[in-house]
Amino acid sequence: MAAEKPKIEIKGVRDGLLITVGDRGDWPAAQDALLETILARSEFFRGARLALDVGPRPLKAAPLGRLRDRLADLGVTLWAVLSESPKTQETARTLGLEIHLARPRPGRVVRPVDTRPRGEEALLVHRTLRSGMRVEFAGHVVVLGNVHAGAEVVAAGDIIVWGHLRGVAHAGAQGNAAAVVCALDLSPTQLRIAEYIATAPPRQGPPVPEMAAVRDGQVVAEPWTPKLK
Q1: b/e per residue, 137-159, with b = 16+ CB within 10 A?
Q2: Which residues 6+ apart lie within 8 Å of 100 measured at CB?
Q3: 157, 170 Cβ separation under 8 angstroms
Q4: Beta partners for residue 152, in sequence order
Q5: DSSP 8-state secondary structure symbol assigned to residue 202
Q6: Could you say which of 1.10.3720.10, 2.40.10.10, 1.25.40.20, 2.160.20.70 is the CATH number of the domain covering 122-223?
Q7: Where are the domains of the chain?
Q8: Block means of pLDDT (10 residues each) for the chain, length 229 residues?
Q9: 218: which strand partners?
């Protein structure tokens, strides 16, 4: 009987993506399952920052370093390794990796106001996406052009289309229901935010910029206008 493959679980965290490798199987099998998952969705993972939970497995510096280099070749940055193994924790420290995910501190903390704008990772697509084309990214996606019917845009974060959106858009693909989809002409064949799905009704009148978001468990579209504070 063939050995059961380790289960790979992916979720978004504040600093990127957290991948948990199930406890079943030795490290070579777990590493193979991890790389298969990333290679199968290479466009989605390209540019991602990755935290890896290896469970109780004790890892030495050589295999973990090789994995970090292999991920770098695929455009993925390994920045943290989580484990209950003291050996693995020491190895991660030696390689300059974090061993804990950042958590907000309890209580009220007063900090100086930082007036510098903070950005988030995004993919800029400076072209029109025609039928049969697909863009997938582990962050926000901005399209400077039209998204034709039959084209698809998938993002872990928001989707912004500076043009007509007529194809399929899936924002918050890793379960982020706070993601939004914005377009100058929002007329998708299907629009999805996290697990919520909607289709655009027939347009009445000329197109106007709109933003789709989840409100009370439903995807709704609202005028896309700047909010001044």
Answers
A1: bbbbbbbeebbbeebbbbbbbbb
A2: 80, 82
A3: no
A4: 134, 168
A5: P
A6: 2.160.20.70
A7: 8-94, 122-223
A8: 71 82 82 89 84 91 92 90 92 90 57 57 91 91 94 94 94 92 93 86 76 90 70
A9: 215
